[in-house]
UniProtKB/TrEMBL annotation:
Top-rank taxon: Eukaryota
UniProt similarity note: Belongs to the HAUS3 family.
Species this protein is from: Castanea mollissima
Pfam families the UniProt entry points to: HAUS-augmin3
Keywords: Cell cycle, Cell division, Coiled coil, Cytoplasm, Cytoskeleton, Microtubule, Mitosis
GO BP: any one term: spindle assembly
Name of this chain's protein: HAUS augmin-like complex subunit 3 N-terminal domain-containing protein
């Protein structure tokens, strides 16, 4: 803006309301210089305030959306962690069961081996009745122990800690 200092000497009076022509006592001049700008500033200020209110409204909406999505994500993460824990527990149980079944399978395998050995012995001595009478007291208790359902399982002679022979 253009400011004209009137003819007074010194700077003491330079900022007197009547010394600057824009602020002179004549209201027409002031209105002419600042009226249009004041209206533009007023309109722009109202527009900026309206825009600021709209942005605040959008920000509150975005924050509420963020909070909602954060809650959902947290729930999903907790659910996933629970599923992982449950899966891990089930996998642990399945591993234990697999180990147990493997051990049982090994026992059954050895039991079948024992029965095959006994079958081979019985088949070999079946044509020799005098030898069958000698082997029978040893083989019958072994067969009885292997084939009973008293919880001992097959081939007790091959369990851990046994001597490995099928003798009673």
């Amino acid at each position: 803006m253009f400011w004209v200092i009137t003819g007074r000497e010194g700077l003491d009076f330079a900022f007197d309301d009547n010394s600057i022509s824009a602020f002179s006592a004549r209201p027409g001049r002031r209105k002419h210089l600042f009226g249009v700008e004041e209206r533009y500033i007023g309109v722009a200020t109202l527009a900026y305030k309206a825009e600021a209110l709209e942005l605040q409204k959008q920000l509150r909406h975005i924050q509420s959306q963020f909070d909602m999505h954060t809650g959902q994500a947290s729930s999903l993460i907790q659910g996933r962690q629970a599923r992982v824990a449950a899966t891990s527990t089930v996998n642990g149980h399945l591993t234990d069961l697999d180990d147990s079944l493997s051990a049982r399978n090994l026992e059954l395998h050895f039991g079948v081996g024992c029965l095959r050995a006994i079958s081979t012995i019985l088949e070999s001595v079946s044509r020799l009745p005098q030898l069958f009478v000698q082997v029978e007291p040893t083989l019958v208790p072994i067969m009885r122990r292997m084939l009973t359902s008293d919880g001992q399982g097959p081939c007790v002679c091959f369990r851990k800690g046994s001597s490995g022979s099928c003798a009673p």
